[in-house]
UniProtKB/TrEMBL annotation:
Domain Peptidase M24: 2-179
GO molecular-function terms, A-Z: aminopeptidase activity; metal ion binding
Protein name: Xaa-Pro aminopeptidase
Pfam families in the record: Peptidase_M24, Peptidase_M24_C
Species name: Cladocopium goreaui
Cofactor: Mn(2+)
Gene3D superfamilies attached to this UniProt entry: Creatinase/methionine aminopeptidase superfamily (3.90.230.10)
Family (UniProt): Belongs to the peptidase M24B family.
Tree of life domain: Eukaryota
Domain Peptidase M24 C-terminal: 191-251
Keyword Manganese belongs to the record: yes
Length: 253
């Protein structure tokens, strides 16, 4: 493991860095949200992935929360930006869809991930807050991290969320890699970057309010799920393969 797994159900999902304790943990339920934030150390890289799911019938409010978080997640994942842009500026990409509904989250949107090292590792950070693991004490140190220019090769997380205290919480996190972008125009010598999306874990289709998504966002999710299916189908058999097939079908209006 690259860190202690965050596995939470129902109201515990609203605790951002929840840790299961015998006195406060809950049993899995088909009627409540489930959030799992987990990762592993591998010789070819380190992972940090979060998915939020519902095993029963989610409420319209839960679907709206999830859809706004998903939109923020996609806004950062599909961003094209000048090389040297700091993470503080990119943070607003992920928060904008939530802000329009009066939603917010009190943690960073992304952090650097070490290669077979620390799962929270500088110097890269996307967000306005301090990410656990980046123990920068001085205001000048925090300022340096927030204004750190992003460069090709930076490996970071994309993890907006939203948490309704005492009720439920949602976070969607994948690992992304900054790479050169091929833009239609080349003005001056400025280079542009984009993110390669590395994580192959389906979103929760039943939590998506398709009416909130733009055609471009909907197409991204459907294309992503097709990619997940094509790349993983031969690795699975039986019930696992059936689950993956159902989890990666196109979104339904």
């Amino acid at each position: 493991d690259s860190f202690d797994t965050i596995s939470s159900v129902g109201s515990n999902t609203s605790v951002v860095h929840y840790k299961p304790e015998k006195a406060s943990c809950k049993k899995l339920s088909k009627d409540e949200m489930y959030l799992i934030d987990t990762g592993g150390q591998y010789q070819d890289g380190t992972t940090d992935v979060t998915r939020t799911v519902h095993f029963g019938t989610p409420t319209e409010e839960q679907k709206r929360f999830y859809s706004r978080v998903l939109q923020g997640h996609l806004a950062l994942a599909t961003a094209v930006f000048p090389e040297g842009t700091c993470g503080l500026l990119l943070d607003a990409f992920a928060r904008r869809p939530l802000w329009q509904d009066g939603m917010e989250y009190g943690h960073g949107t992304g952090h650097g991930i070490g290669a077979y090292l620390n799962v929270h590792e500088g110097p890269a950070q996307i967000g306005g807050g301090q990410v656990p693991g980046n123990k920068i004490q001085s205001s000048e140190g925090r300022r340096r991290i927030l204004l750190m220019p992003l460069k090709a090769g930076f490996f970071v997380s994309d993890e907006p969320g939203c948490y309704k205290d005492g009720d439920f919480g949602i976070r969607i996190e994948s690992d992304i890699l900054a790479t050169p972008a091929d833009t239609p125009y080349k003005m001056s010598s400025q280079k542009f970057l984009k993110f390669d999306y590395l994580t192959l874990v389906p979103m929760c289709r039943k939590l998506v309010n398709v009416s909130l998504l733009s055609p471009v966002e909907r197409q991204w999710v459907d294309s992503y799920h097709l990619r997940v299916w094509e790349e993983l189908k031969d690795e699975l058999t039986g019930d696992s393969r059936t689950w993956l097939w159902e989890a990666t079908r196109p979104l339904e209006a």
